[in-house]
Amino acid sequence: MTTFLKALARSVAAAALLVSAAHADEPVKGGTLITTLPQTPRHLNPAVQSGIVTGAPGAQLFAAPLRYDEDWTPQPYLAESWAWSDDGLSMTLNLVQDARFHDGEPITSEDVAFSVETIKANHPFKTMFGVVETVETPDEHTAVLKLSQPHPALLLAMSSQLMPIIPKHIYGDGQDPKSHPRNGQDVVGSGPFKFVEFTPDQQVILERNDDFFIEGRPYLDRIVYRIIKDAAARSIGMENGELHMTTFENTVRNIKRMSENDSLNVTDEGYAAIGPINWLAFNTGQDGPLADKRVRQAIAYALDKDFILNAIMLGLSQEAKTGIHPGSPLYFPDVNGYDLDLDEANALLDEAGYPKDANGIRFALTIDHGNPTTKPQAEFTKASLAKIGIDVSVNSFVDFPTWANKISNHDFDMTWDTVFNWGDPVIGVHRTYDSQNIKEGVIWSNTQQYANPKIDELMNAAGQEIDPAKRAELYREFQEILAEDLPVYWTNTLPYHTIYSKKVGNPPLGIWASSSPYDLVYLKDE
């Protein structure tokens, strides 16, 4: 048995113990959890739509084969057990018995096969199931995923955010799954909560699924997601007790204020798999200074990362030295973090052939920012690069579509951005550096136009290496080369926080935050 398979066996054996430990504080049944969404979801079906505002209610409406604890350990969920073949080319899922959709129809292996097919054809993350060739269904409770190559990211791809099990008898009616009318109204799911109401710009209401396949759960009677786009309004709602919980909060001054409120708990736990990183991206594919890695390195040396971490982010972010999130077991921090060094920055620019003119200017660049929260970083970049003779103009943020159109069509010099890892590098990291993923008009692809054959080779190898130690070594070299080439300059994790009332028990603090099922969440008697 391989090291990978032995580790997997230990994970399965430990799962029951980890689940039972979650019950140690004797949860209370009943009550309505009032929580938030920061914007209106396009719809509620995560099988064909990425994003946290679809993922949060979607994880309650639809069950997934697996769930994860805070240590990245897979646990049984709709699949009571699972096993790799010795060659790593097939994954067998053994489904729980007697699980049913919300309309009473049984959940079978045919629904698993249909869900994989639908996700593969319609979800924007093509690498999740791209190597799944077929899903065999030898009986109603066994699904066997056949792969064209080993795929170590498959287990994480089976989480609620990424692999909801949707009913074939609803979505297999020939209509386009992306625009299916049951995506947002009369949703029939497989998870711990059932659909009640979705009113755009107002709220999503879910109620307890009394026939959920895990006996005794969920504990809550209802979940009400209030759609509150203004961060200050969410903070006020938490402080005055109108809300029980809000997740994915990243306005640092509001987080600081709420952390001083004795009735609230404030934590950054739960976002390791989401993996949000702030970075300064360079258009390496254009003619001009940014095509030279020495110029990119000089810019990094000119930016005081400590100022970003402590003055802009108020100490609520972690340093990020690479494109893999620091919360990932594959993160390798022993690379050049480009600490502030103006002398080195100036020397690199001189070496690259960009001397200062009579006015002290070497060349001019523009900088965009992907949302209003990164405006301080853009302004700080302008001031910092002036010190080494780079004249920077900041393009004011207009709206997301305008920014996304510019960046995805490579019409930029530099931009501040936030990009998610989505659990495994195969899913959310490779897309940024893959030379085959330079696609005009597609945001969050390789918009930097970066190409390095060695990086492509390492990603291909790591993407199918099932031995954890060998895989970690491949990603170590991957991160070392990127830290030298610097197609983007990584600075910090996005300061996502969960704020919850002390009335809330078992808040979602695993690795998927509010994109994990709430069947263990409860409201305490007081």
Topology:
Layout: H1 3-21, E1 32-37, H2 52-61, E2 66-68, E3 74-76, E4 79-84, E5 90-95, H3 109-122, E6 132-139, E7 142-147, H4 154-157, H5 168-171, E8 193-199, E9 203-208, E10 222-227, H6 231-239, E11 245-249, H7 252-259, E12 264-267, E13 276-282, H8 293-302, H9 305-312, H10 342-351, E14 363-369, H11 375-386, E15 390-394, H12 400-408, E16 414-420, H13 425-428, H14 430-433, H15 453-462, H16 468-485, E17 488-493, E18 497-501, E19 504-505, E20 522-523
Parallel strand pairs: 1-10, 14-15, 14-16
Antiparallel strand pairs: 2-3, 4-5, 5-7, 6-7, 8-9, 9-10, 11-18, 12-18, 13-16, 13-17, 19-20
Task: Describe it.
By secondary structure, the protein is of the alpha+beta class. The chain has 2 domains: 3-270 and 497-523, 3-Layer(aba) Sandwich (D-Maltodextrin-Binding Protein, domain 2), CATH 3.40.190; 276-493, Dipeptide-binding Protein, domain 3. The protein has 16 helices and 20 strands. The chain has a 5-stranded mixed beta sheet with strand order 15-14-16-13-17. A hairpin with a 3-residue loop joins β8 and β9 (203-208). α8 (293-302) packs antiparallel against α10 (342-351) and α15 (453-462) packs antiparallel against α16 (468-485). The termini are far apart. The relative contact order is 0.16. The model is unreliable at 1-24 (pLDDT under 50).
